[in-house]
Amino acid sequence: MELLCPAGNIPAVKKAIEHGADAVYVGLKDDTNARHFAGLNFTDSKLQRASQYVHDHGKDLHVAINTFAHPDGWRRWQYAIDSAAGNGADALILADMACLDYAASTYPDLDIHLSVQASATNAGAIRFYQQQYGVKRVVLPRVLSIHQVKQLARDTDVDLEVFAFGSLCIMAEGRCYLSSYLTGQSPNTVGACSPAAFVRWQDTEQGLESRLNGVLIDRYQADEKAGYPTLCKGRFCVDGNRYHALEEPTSLNTLSVLPELYRAGVKSVKIEGRQRSPAYVEQVARVWRQAIDRCVANPEAFDIAPDWAHSLDSLSEGVQTSLGAYHRKWQ
């Protein structure tokens, strides 16, 4: 079972590798990836440096090119694929069918992983991408229960990758337009949910307010930890009650089902967070390296070390974690 860690810059790449990642995933410095934020990601030269470092340590580099090509921007996505292939990527993480087709036909020896943005949630969809584009691995959306993940693992011979830790997304990835509803921009189009240019913070007599394109998303009291203003995790008044109407600001943590994922044959567990700091990557990679090694050695006796839980809780959104859809009985 592979530990796949995020990196938004060279220091994060090094922290991930130094603390146990088997592979690192990164994005290029433009809107061809779904974490297109200021100060993040890799130019061609930095991608080459990252590739050199990862390969010098015997690990793999995955490059996410997982937004959907704009009608007038195909050349950027084509260039991103060429750049990743030319600078040492071991795998491309793709969602757009044109990108999948171009990569499969131009670089047939390069592994293609189907991005979570493609929202392949069933064996038929996975088979389609395997037959059409030769995908080697599918990143499953964070909307499947543990039962559904196991079922998919039985029904396909394509490697499966699941999110193990990090922010939750309540929508089927690639299908969410909430950010676009307020700003005109979304992960699908510009690679960013709630783009920073639309975010405003304001101290008021009622508390610290977060707004997205002028719309009040949340208001925090002095003792509350403020979250990034995404529309799905805001607090809104519904029938006179103010609460998280769509989703709690909490993080996914699958440590407790790690043996089940391992026994199901899940190939890779993925840490979310290319926008996170190198210190975050270091801490999460260290915990998950230890957890995977313990699980693989003896899954029947696997237990969660108290310091792992403490460490991950301290890094979690809202300082709390959840199994997310893995344990949902409803869909």
TrEMBL record:
Keyword vocabulary terms for this entry: 4Fe-4S, Hydrolase, Iron, Iron-sulfur, Metal-binding, Protease, Ubiquinone biosynthesis
Pathway: Cofactor biosynthesis; ubiquinone biosynthesis
Record bears the keyword Plastid: no
Pfam assignment, any one: Peptidase_U32
Gene Ontology MF: a single term: metal ion binding
One record GO biological process: proteolysis
Entry superkingdom: Bacteria
Binding site for [4Fe-4S] cluster: C169, C176, C193, C232
The protein's required cofactors: [4Fe-4S] cluster
Function, in words: Required for O(2)-independent ubiquinone (coenzyme Q) biosynthesis. Together with UbiV, is essential for the C6-hydroxylation reaction in the oxygen-independent ubiquinone biosynthesis pathway.
Family: Belongs to the peptidase U32 family. UbiU subfamily.
Quaternary structure note: Forms a heterodimer with UbiV.
UniProt protein name: Ubiquinone biosynthesis protein UbiU
Lineage, broadest ranks: Bacteria, Pseudomonadati, Pseudomonadota, Gammaproteobacteria, Vibrionales
